[in-house]
Write a structure and sequence with these properties.
Blueprint: E1 3-8, H1 16-31, E2 35-40, H2 52-57, H3 66-90, E3 95-98, E4 105-107, E5 116-119, H4 122-129, E6 133-137, E7 140-142, E8 148-150, H5 155-166, E9 172-176, E10 197-199, H6 200-208, H7 216-224, E11 229-233, E12 241-244, E13 265-278, H8 286-297, E14 303-307, E15 311-317, H9 321-330, E16 334-347, H10 357-367, E17 374-377, E18 381-387, H11 391-401
Parallel strand pairs: 1-2, 1-9, 2-6, 3-6, 9-11, 10-12
Antiparallel strand pairs: 4-5, 7-8, 11-12, 13-15, 13-16, 14-15, 16-18, 17-18
Helix pairs in contact: 5-7, 6-7, 10-11
The structure holds adenosine-5'-diphosphate and magnesium ion.
Amino acid sequence: MKTIVQKFGGTSVSSKESRNKVADKIIKRYKEGYKVVVVVSAMGRKGDPYATDTLLGMINQKAITNKEMDLLMSCGEIISAVVLSNHLYERGYKVEVLTGAQAGILTNSNFGNAEIINIDPTNIMKYLEEDTIVIVAGFQGNNENGEITTLGRGGSDISAVAIGSAVDSEQVEIYTDVDGIMTADPNIVPDAKVLKKMCYSEVYQLAEDGAKVIHPRAVEMAQQFNIPLIIKNTYSDSEGTSIEEVNVNFINNRKELFNEKIITAITYKKGRVQVIVSLNEDEDECKIDKLMDKITLNNISLDLINFLADKKIFTITNEDKDRLISILEEEDLNYEIIEDCCKISAIGYKMRGVPGVMARIVKALSRENIKILQTSDSHNTIWCLIKEEDTDKALGALHKEFRLFE
Ligand code: ADP
Ligand code: MG
């Protein structure tokens, strides 16, 4: 049985016209002989009648439990799935609409950000065998008590990949409103280019570091189960971006298959706060141990960690700032806080072992008079912390320096 999973994002299902385009994509696969499972997000974006943010705007979020909030938010995808099925019925196809729970998605009870722990595809398979197109409401599942849970923002991508692995999908197609994954956010860098192929680790890093085109957990899961992912445009017939495994040992022999540039793409995450804790000569390192324990207890996650003998530098999110400051005060530490920072990431699996990439980044930013507050690197990413106000300029400079527009 040839099976395929297609996921359609919010804008793809927001209007009658776009839903007809979605139906075209589904029918095309169906006619090619695939058993098709469709996963949908809620219709539209903030302000649209049943978009997730609109549903959230209807309630006082302080007077509701997380469980009820999930019940409310899960409605958006259910509405979207039923409305889309309408278009397929009209065109004469057999369709079955399933909630996440009915599709067999079992999650833990972490309402609002639940993790999938198992999928029982029996129900989906039953309909596929009857040659029915199955539409599943994305972004949701249920816990072992049968209570509805949601998977966190962008969670329909996760639903799609998880279902893809459960039904042995040939690939998972993620349809959105751009032609694929681009070298930078097209809203900021106008000459950003669509990438034809990327490897899982690059896309994971890109998503993790802020590009919202796909959920990082979905990429991680696709890699784990070795499912090819493809990002395509609902509104065009462009080839899209295909995401596959790359064997690092063969990188140089496979140049023709993947992007030849050292940097594949750049992205950014705003709302970062840099923290610099200084120890006086007579102060004990024990104070830092205590600080770290409290940070862990408070579930504050640290990033870009740089510990020197007399200075401990790291970044946190804006949301954690007040809690961290009260801990620093309690521990009577000297500290400095730099707010409104942005973490820029330059990602490319080919930078491993290539000298001089960081130097090029630093020079490109300095030429634009952008102050670099901190840097860090891994085998496939270089990060620079800068002030938020420099974000657009920095992205433009790096895009140009690495000739990503070509
Ligand atoms: P969907 O509703 O289909 O899930 P999203 O809004 O989650 O769509 O993701 C698609 C959007 O991601 C695009 O419209 C684009 O503005 C944005 N985006 C940010 N960075 C990138 C990038 N590097 N490549 C492509 N799109 C990006
Ligand atoms: Mg999305």
